[in-house]
Amino acid sequence: MCNQHWPSEMRTFQDERTGRTIQQLTNQGNNVHLYFTENAFDTSGAFIIFRSDRASGEQKAPYDDPHYNLFKLSLDNGEIIQLTDESHPVESVTKTPDSQLIVYSTGNQIKALDLNSGAARVVYAETGDFDVGAPSISHNRRYIAFARNERVPIQRGPNYAGFKEHFYTIKDGRITIAYLDGSGAFDAYRDTHWLGHFQFCPDDSTLAMFCHEGPWHLVTQRIWLLDFVSRSAKPCFRQREEDSIGHEFWTNDGYIFFDNRGPEHDGAITSDRTQAVVTAPNVNANAMLPFVGLADRHRNVVRRLDMPYYCNHYHAGPNQNLLVGDDVDTLVLIDTTDDAPPIETLCYHGTSWHTQSSHCHPTWSWDGRQILYASDRGGQVNLYLLEM
């Protein structure tokens, strides 16, 4: 039921590894913040937007397809308010930095929610045999775009089940634009690969990024920049044989961050603390030193930082000087102003890595003062906040 309220569930505790004060924000049902390429924080710092199954009337494990809806949590008093009441689970979510416009997928539809009025409207409805990917909102707020991939008879599941099989099977992937006023949609680009991670440039509505999805060591060119004017895609960081690239995202100031883990790394982590596809790498450990990089919108690499593999995801603060990463068991802080960046342990996260919803996906607040992350250390997924 929309506008249903829950009282604060916040509690604070001292981290067992570092002694830092951690604030647990939720404790009912499964609670998942926005994907790490997005930002769940409002620019005011007053609240976050997240998904939860707390209103479903069911008690489900994270891997058992919980029925998620959208919620708003006040960081001041902990109050939680339900924003949607969809008959199908809410899946991918994006929003404008000021949170006034929230776009999400549910069933075969993509909807736009006006936070002020509470009204949601259908922006796109899939009628073909395609799976719709995560939407992204253009800087001018006139349209959204997203990847669509042909449906294949392969089940996806926990621990990256079906990951490699999807990579080999999907041969029709598209980037589709839909107008936010609901007036129509069209395919702007078509490819012969599984497409994902579509993200508009934060300050240019004619430019976007997407990836060829799949196990990183099998994808021969991961990151692509898409010019919507010419409808042409060009490779960003042209890969070599030894590269394994992934987890690209736009920084707030318009650079493309990417992670290169080197030969035979598939970019995954499972609940067994192993990779999902490459379980016994047969590679010289000295063949290549992993690194992270920054590319500009002209595809030039402007920064390369050697970094022995530590993290599963990275997220940059208001600038690129500080990164937060999720190691196997801990969150770490990385100061990139040093060419040999020191690694500082922030806290123990204790997540299982069993499902995508239980991935920590640590993200910075817009002002760089807080880090939000998820963990299923108690069995269900909950949200945690770290003050910096």
Summarize the structure.
The protein has 388 residues and is mostly beta strands. 2% of the residues lie in helices and 41% in strands.
Helix and strand arrangement:
Blueprint lengths: L4 E2 L4 E4 L6 E4 L6 E3 L13 E6 L16 E6 L5 E3 L7 E6 L5 E6 L2 E6 L5 E6 L4 E3 L3 E2 L5 E8 L12 H7 L3 E7 L5 E7 L3 E7 L2 E9 L10 E5 L4 E4 L9 E6 L5 E5 L30 E5 L5 E6 L7 E3 L5 E5 L3 E6 L7 E6 L14 E2 L5 E6 L6 E6 L1
Antiparallel strand pairs: 1-7, 2-3, 3-31, 4-5, 5-6, 6-7, 8-9, 9-10, 10-11, 12-14, 13-14, 14-15, 15-16, 17-18, 18-19, 19-20, 21-22, 22-23, 23-24, 25-26, 26-27, 27-28, 29-30, 30-31
The CATH topology corresponds to: Methylamine Dehydrogenase, Chain H
Average pLDDT confidence is: 95
Task: Identify the CATH architecture.
Answer: 7 Propeller
CA(first)-CA(last) distance:
35 Å
Shape: globular
Helix content: under 10%
Number of helices in the DSSP assignment: 1
How many extended strands?
31
Measured on Cα atoms, how large is the radius of gyration?
20 Å
- What is the total number of structural domains? 1
